[in-house]
Each structure stands twice: as C-alpha cells, then as structure tokens.
Amino acid sequence: xxxxxxxxxxxxxxxxxxxxxxxxxxxxxxxxxxxxxxxxxxxxxxxxxxxxxxxxxxxxxxxxxxxxxxxxxxxxxxxxxxxxxxxxxxxxxxxxxxxxxxxxxxxxxxxxxxxxxxxxxxxxxxxxxxxxxxxxxxxxxxxxxxxxxxxxxxxxxxxxxxxxxxxxxxxxxxxxxxxxxxxxxxxxxxxxxxxxxxxxxxxxxxxxxxxxxxxxxxxxxxxxxxxxxxxxxxxxxxxxxxxxxxxxxxxxxxxxxxxxxxxxxxxxxxxxxxxxxxxxxxxxxxxxxxxxxxxxxxxxxxxxxxxxxxxxxxxxxxxxxxxxxxxxxxxxxxxxxxxxxxxxxxxxxxxxxxxxxxxxxxxxxxxxxxxxxxxxxxxxxxxxxxxxxxxxxxxxxxxxxxxxxxxxxxxxxxxxxxxxxxxxxxxxxxxxxxxxxxxxxxxxxxxxxxxxxxxxxxxxxxxxxxxxxxxxxxxxxxxxxxxxxxxxxxxxxxxxxx
Length: 498
Description:
Rossmann fold; 22 helices; three-stranded antiparallel beta sheet; Arc Repressor Mutant, subunit A; single chain; two-stranded parallel sheet; mainly alpha
C-alpha cells in the first residue's frame, strides 16, 4: 500500500471511530448530597464509556435556582472523584461542547425555544394555576389521568395579543400530536411503547422564562453529541416527551437505557429510613472507595463468574449495559460492609490504608506519627470491616488509663491471677525493650514457675494491659506500645487490685 492510500485509509478509520464513539453523560443537580442511586448511575455511565472506549461528560443541571448551591456542586465532584469516576469533559476540565453548567447555557436554550415557536411546535398557555388545579381535580373525580385540556392550544392571534397586552403571564407548552404512540427500544427494558394521550401538552418554559428539564436535557444531549442516555427508570416517563422534542428540533435520538430502581432490604424504595444513603455518609462511616465502586457496580449487574470482589479494571472489562437486569436491585448493607472488610484486610497496601486511616485515628483522639499508626493497623486490620472500627480496635494501643470490665476484674481479684501479673512485672521491670517473641518466652517461664496455663495465665495479663477479656493479640500489643507503657499498665493494675 502506498503512503497516500495508507493516509486515506487512516482517515476513513478515524472517521468511522468518531462516528461510532460512545458518548455518555452524568448530569446531577447540585441540590444535595450524592445519593447512592445517582452514584450508581454515574458509575454505570463511566464503566460503559471505558468499556467501549467512549467518553463520559459531566454536566451540572443547576436550573433550580432556589435549591442549587455551589457547595453541593463541589461536594458532588469531590465524591465522584473519591469513587474513582473520571470524566473527559465537564465544568472543571472543560471540553469542546461546553459550557457544562445549564445556568451558563441560557442563550442556547432561547435559540431553540425560538425555533420551536417558528415551527409551531409550542404555544403560549395563559391558564392560571387555579384553573389547572381545577382541571386536575375534575379529571381525578372522573377517573381520568390528569392532563392539560388544551384550552389555550388554538387561541387566535387576536386573543393572544389581547392577553399579552393585559400583561397576563404565560408558559410555553409543547404541542403533542393527538393519539400518537412513541415506541423505542430500551437497552435494558426492551421494546417500550407509550401513548402520548397519557400526558398531553407539556410545559417547556415556565412563566418566569426559565426552561424546564425535559426541554433543556434534549438540547444539551443533542449538542453534546450524547449517543447513549443511561439513567434511572424514574426517568422512563420523561422519555416520550423528550423524543418528541428531539424530532421537533431535527435532532438524532440517542439510545436509552433505564436502570432498575434500588430497593432497601425491606423491598421498599431506598430512602433515608434505611439509614445512610449518600456517598458522603459512607465515606464518613469508614468505607473505602474501591469497595463502594465494587458494591455499586453489583446493583443491577453481576459478573459472569461467582467472584464478586472485582477491581475497577475487571468490572470495566466484563461490563455491558445490556447485561444489566430489569428487575429492581436490592441494596444489601451487610454485604457492602463485608466487601469493605475484604478490601481493608486483603486488597489495600498497608501504607495506602494508613493514609486513609489517619483522619479516623485523629478523629478518635488517637495522636501518633504515621509509622505508629501503620504498626497498629498491621495488628488490627484483620478485625476491621470499616475504618470506624478503629475506635474500638485501636483503643488498647492509645489509652493507658482505661476502665476494667466487670468480667475482667474477676481475674485480678483472684489470688492466682494477681500473682501471675505480679510475677510478670518482676520479669519485665528491668527490661529496656520487649518483642512479641520475648513476651511469649516470658509467659512460658511463668507457666513453668507458677504451674498456671491457659486462660488462668493469659487472662490476668490481658486484663491488666487492656481492661478487657478479649481483643487484640497481647504479644503484638506489647511489642507495639513498648515496654515502658507495659510497665505502667501492669503497675496500675497491681495498685488497683492490690
């Protein structure tokens, strides 16, 4: 092949790739914390984009002027990054099709409102809220689904001009074709058909001039060249309205995929009554991002094998949007906690785990340097399910002046137990250091000298060092806290029970 033919071939291949490039988007409203349902939607968009070699767009839908706040947008972005979701275009990284905040796209929307006005697809509706409410109540009383009657649909120019001259407020409504059935293939739900008579003429611009969701989302998705709209099934009823707008504006319709709703363990829709349901709350509760990514990926999708502990790369490799289940996904909090424990115990490098754990240590008032935190984690990590468990598990490494449990007191109030601790102190009082192996050697000597073994040997020492009858490996505790603190605790116990 000559160089000219090769260059032409490369151009053809590049053009085909550009034409078939998957472009998806996640478009949250900055009106609160990132809910698990929205996080799952963001995750599936991200995974699908990476699986197909496509692009993910982050778009901020901040047209709700009352509830949208900059701090929520910042938290959303922070939580998405924490989860390990990366986008190719967005308000913080820019891109070819910006702006990526709806509040900055008003002029664009106005152009398309004007286009719909010129083509007769929308009309002014002057009906008052009271009139609309009366219509709604009448429809319900007659057993009909509430929908706009079309009262203003065919007003004459003369009547419109009169109402405008009187300063009557109005909204722009989309002129829905009577009796049409909107059919589309959903990548998850299959073939879907919805009769437009179920909803009637709908508002696309409010009386204050602000455009509504169903209109702006179409304009944004079309101009940002979104090929696949992956979102929760609560948006399914919006889809026929949006398809009508796509057609009216001459835009190509994207593929749609509506994710199943997420239920709590009681099979009701996941909500605050099920406990923490925001990503931020799980972060604060000591969950690690890898476990959250893994756990969210399993809400409505399952890998082909039995293994559910999968890295981000493995999930991306296996995932296909058409494998997502149609049935509701049940959020199993216990399973996520178990999964989190697996990552803490087995998957994370100890230095990485320590960096993540430092804020928790400090939050519990446990002050030390990085290397000490690391030593503690090396001992206790096998007993952790979340980083919040550090508060109890790490306590013996930081608190010297603790209370003795009622069960523990019995071992030191016993004459034999007290003698075990007393003799133990005699063996360590002149030491400058102590290791786990040296501790074990000393306890073997005690066993021979005092004729005591099992819990009668170890429990008194454990209680003297921790106040409890169960918990951390005592030999490792002794090595980590050092011999001086061991001496202090033993002396304290001897004084308390002497």
